[in-house]
Amino acid sequence: MGRILLIVAAVVLAFFLLGSILGLLVGLIKWALIIGLVAVVVTFVTRLLRSSGARR
Fold it and tell me: Residue 24 class from Cβ within 10 Å (0-12 exposed, 13-18 middle, 19+ buried)?
């Protein structure tokens, strides 16, 4: 009985740790995508402003 409870506790602890690690990874990926999107928008806007400034 004690061994079964120990195994169940280990499995529950593993799920808690896995959830925390996956949450951290998803958060990092989310921020990387947001920063990448901002960089792409800034690059597009600067190129757009440069090309419109060259026409004048």
Answer: exposed
**Residues in contact with 20: Cβ distance below 8 Å, sequence separation at least 6, in sequence order:** none
Q: Is the pTM of this model over 0.70?
A: no
Distance CA 23, CA 42 (A): 29
In the numeric block, the tokens 């400034």 are attached to: 53
Residue numbers in the chain where pLDDT is lower than 70 = 54-56
Distance CA 51, CA 43 (A): 12
Tokens coding 29: 């990926």
